[in-house]
Amino acid sequence: MSIRAIDEAPLNPFHRKLTWACAGGPFLDGYLLSIIGVSLVGMTNELSLSTGEVSLIGAAALVGIFVGGLFFGAVTDRLGREAMYTIDLAVLVGASVLSVFVTDSWQVVILRFVLGVAIGADYPIATSLLAEWVPNKHRGRLLGVLILAWYIGAAAAYVIGFVLAEIGGPDAWRWMVASSAVLCAVVLLMRLGTPESPLWLVNKGRTAEAQDAIKSALGRTVPIEELLAASAAEQSVVQSRVRDLFKGVYLRRTLFCGLFYMCQITPMFALLTFGPTILGSFGLGEGNTSHLGSALISIVFVLGCLPALRMVDRIGRRPVIVWSFALMAVPLAVLGGGSSVPVAVVILCFCTYALFSGGPTVLEWTYPNELFPTGIRATAGGVATSISRVGAAAGTYLLPISISRLGIGATMLIGAAITLGGWLVSLLWAEETRGRTLAETSAPPGAATRPSTPGEGRRTDLQDGELERS
Q1: % pLDDT > 90, the chain
Q2: Share above pLDDT 70 across residues of the chain, in percent, rounded to a whole number
Q3: pTM of the full predicted structure?
Q4: Counting C-beta atoms within 10 Å of the first and last residue's C-beta, which end of the chain has fewer, N or C?
Q5: What is the SS3 assignment for the chain?
């Protein structure tokens, strides 16, 4: 099922506004996950936190993201993108405000878990809403912008944390937490008035509302008969049940999205942790200035994503992800030389990895939204996020243990092996989805869908429905 008024629409101010509004969630995610690291210095002193309590605070958000992604993607598919969009941001605002007034470690742990749940829920909410509104030929690039917002949010957290610490010292940690509450409120205001996804409305049989949403956002009137035919076509083809993710071709796609995401993010978390050590050679590895070094790391990864944003829509998803994983493994293998590797080579490897990691990074949220139908699209995105966080949590927890017992060289070689695992998964299972409608990309291989050639593009949606039912 596809709606040509959306698939073939030119980019307009609505698309840009929606992209910025959806990017607000990932921006907050990067900010909230990073500002806690800056504020923990002062928080530890004031609340007399033990090492175990600090670890719990750090892990609480990751556990929350796992839970939020796993369960609330399905809720989003049931209740709608726009409704969950607002609820999710309201929870982020509330938990951020309450974090300013904490007086004990258990309160911090609970609030960080709640924030993590909201963050994990936001990934499938924002990405599915944007994917279902943007035109085919711009979908990969605009979804990739969302992941850029995550890194920008992380960089902003370190810069703001640095400024507040310079002004107020460690005691400024409550102001740091308060800054996240203000930003959450701003993003919530940006999202007010965002229309519901027409694809979700059509999937639920609410065709009149879908027609109104398209007219309001794009200025196009789609005949109600076309929307009714599109709704019938999807209902006849897709059984929108969570268990469909774990059957047939959708099981393979679920494993692909989750595993490549995990193989990409696990070494990346390790390298982000290793990064401050590298930057220490420039005097940015100690004290408050280390926050500026961490901000620089995030910016380097942003720069790595920029070329990938264009390539995914120009040369395709499959070549970008396959070649990126292969090239990402090379600098990690070189870093396997450990402390004997010259500093200049270490820095070059870091920058090279960041550059090539842009491919899988911008596809983290593109593939789950393209490979699954409307009824389970957000669910699939949430499951992929949850699988990836298993690797992120494991990498974060095991990295210091691996460095102390095996050494930095062996640790980097393990990262290279994991990256090659992502390459193998992509080589075997990555599909090409560039320039195709969501109906075409989410259909099982060999299923009859509307051809996207210019000559056949004038086929009516009613004919599409009959074709898909045949």
Answers
A1: 13
A2: 84
A3: 0.76
A4: C
A5: CCCHHHHCCCCCHHHHHHHHHHHHHHHHHHHHHHHHHHHHHHHHHHHCCCHHHHHHHHHHHHHHHHHHHHHHHHHHHHHCHHHHHHHHHHHHHHHHHHHCCCCCHHHHHHHHHHHHHHHHHHHHHHHHHHHCCCCHHHHHHHHHHHHHHHHHHHHHHHHHHHHHHHHHHHHHHHHHHHHHHHHHHHHHHHHCCCCCCHHHHHHCCCHHHHHHHHHHHHCCCCCHHHHHHHHHHHHHHCCCCHHHHHCHHHHHHHHHHHHHHHHHHHHHHHHHHHHHHHHHHHCCCCCCHHHHHHHHHHHHHHHHHHHHHHHHHHCCHHHHHHHHHHHHHHHHHHHCCHHHCCHHHHHHHHHHHHHHCHHHHHHCCHHHHHCCCHHHHHHHHHHHHHHHHHHHHHHHHHHHHHHHHHCHHHHHHHHHHHHHHHHHHHHHHCCCCCCCCHHHHHCCCCCCCCCCCCCCCCCCHHHHHHHHHC
